[in-house]
């Protein structure tokens, strides 16, 4: 898949949005329309643009958008388009699975928090084998082979019948109430605000309390393994 196809597919699977900042230097809309370059909040991967900060000002960074841009770049997306023609490197490299396996975006996709479609799937009243089959259909678009079904059954069967805790669903709200823009980025506290946002982004949303921790972590491992399967990335 292209970089955009891969990123869109991962977020579509998880049911989550990009949670990106607005791609504008003037969120307060103070500048005149002729001087205002506002690309809005991206809802699809193709709507992202370069986030390079040529003036080396950490206070103007966009940590939430950067998480997605890092994956796009690793899979061949050209963040900088100095020429009208875009030439991409489509060769596979070791950074691609490394970033998906260990990066912030991969953690967001596999985290069973209360905004995840996989959390809702895991809470459904169904046999374990059907849950595993549904995961394969959703992620790899095929049924699991018998050895795969047995392997994943062994991973998820302990505690499956008692996985649901009965806890209520909770919405996550950022604890950061301040915002940084071109108008206030020289404020001494601006960089600290951006660093706090970056820390929150790297930590991710808290895992759901509706599933027992031990079973949830094994379910996340299953999602991680399926997401990293080479057949997920390559189109037939």
Question: Would you write up a description of this structure?
Answer:
The protein is mostly helical and 236 residues long. It has a domain at 1-110. 44% of the residues lie in helices and 0% in strands. The chain has 10 helices and no strands. It has helices at 3-14, 63-74, 95-102, 104-110, 117-123, 128-140, 146-156, 190-203, 213-227, 230-233. It is globular, with a radius of gyration of 20 Å. The protein starts with a helix and ends with a helix. The mean pLDDT is 89.
**Structural class by secondary-structure content:** mainly alpha
Radius of gyration computed on alpha carbons = 20 Å
Tell how many strands the DSSP assignment holds.
0
Distance between the termini: 10 Å
Portion in helices: 40-55%
By DSSP (H or I, 4+ residues per run), the number of helices equals: 10
Shape: globular
Mean pLDDT: 89
Order of helices and strands: HHHHHHHHHH
Strand count, sense and barrel status of the largest sheet are: none
Q: What ranges have pLDDT less than 50 throughout 5 or more consecutive residues? A: none
Report the β-strand fraction as a percent range.
under 5%
In brief, what are we looking at here?
This protein is mostly helical. It has helices at residues 3-14, 63-74, 95-102, 104-110, 117-123, 128-140, 146-156, 190-203, 213-227, 230-233.
Offer a few descriptive terms.
globular, 0% strand, single chain, 236 residues, mainly alpha
Write the layout of secondary structure elements.
Layout: H1 3-14, H2 63-74, H3 95-102, H4 104-110, H5 117-123, H6 128-140, H7 146-156, H8 190-203, H9 213-227, H10 230-233
Helix pairs in contact: 1-2, 3-4, 6-7
